[in-house]
Amino acid sequence: MLTHKCSARLHARTLPQGLALPTPRCVFPCPQVSQQRSPLVSSREDQHIAEAPCSSAARRVHTAASSSSSGQVDDSHAGRAFLHDFCMTIPYSAVALAGAAVMWFLGGAIQALAPTTAAVGVATIVTSILSLKNWKQGKEATPFTFLAAGASGYLSYAAYLKAAAGSTTWLTWPLTALSAALCLFCLYNIMAGGNPPRKGSH
């Protein structure tokens, strides 16, 4: 617009008096963009927006109904114990072997319990390895769990006799309680149906 005014003033100086240039006009007028949407497009968009929540809710209901009707529930602990036996017997065997070494080092009356404690520790580590092997192969490990329960139960009784006699009570009482706890857990594992299976094997 400034260019048009400058050119008009320039030509006005050179033209004779009495003549005037016409007012410049825009040669290429700017098109006006319509902001109105087509009725057909508007109705379709409004319908899509209105139906979007309903369709997503319908898909969720359909998915839940299909999953419930198929009856496929991913529960690997159904009819099984909540924890594997070797998850408890492996740490217990390490504690039993360490306790046997301490008893042997202390000497005295408690030293007589060291061989029994070491034997139970070795027995539980062997049953743990066999149980873990069977679990990886998808086999039952109930016999090994039962052996671990018997070994820990026997050690609990032997340690209780030493503790009742007042022999190194700071060691024999904890060993009694720990062995009894493992025995009860192994019995629970057996009654609950055994170890949980591996994922994807049921």
Could you characterize the architecture of this molecule?
The structure is a single chain. The protein is an all-alpha fold and 202 residues long. Helix content is 67%, strand content 0%. It contains 6 helices and no strands. α3 packs antiparallel against α4. The longest helix is centred in the N-terminal third of the chain and has 32 residues. It is elongated.
Overall average pLDDT: 75
Element pattern in H and E: HHHHHH
According to DSSP, the number of beta strands is 0
Which residues form runs of ≥5 with pLDDT under 50?
A: 1-12, 49-54, 61-74
Major sheet description: none
* Relative helix content: 55-70%
- The whole-angstrom Rg is 44 Å
Output the number of helix runs.
6
Beta content: under 5%
Q: Categorize the overall geometry.
A: elongated
What gap, in angstroms, lies between the N and C termini?
Answer: 83 Å
Quickly give the structural class.
mainly alpha
Can you describe this structure in just a few lines?
With 202 residues, the chain is mainly α.
Helix and strand topology:
Blueprint (H helix, E strand, L loop, with lengths): L1 H13 L24 H32 L15 H21 L7 H23 L5 H23 L4 H23 L11
What are the key terms here?
mainly alpha, 202 residues, disordered N terminus
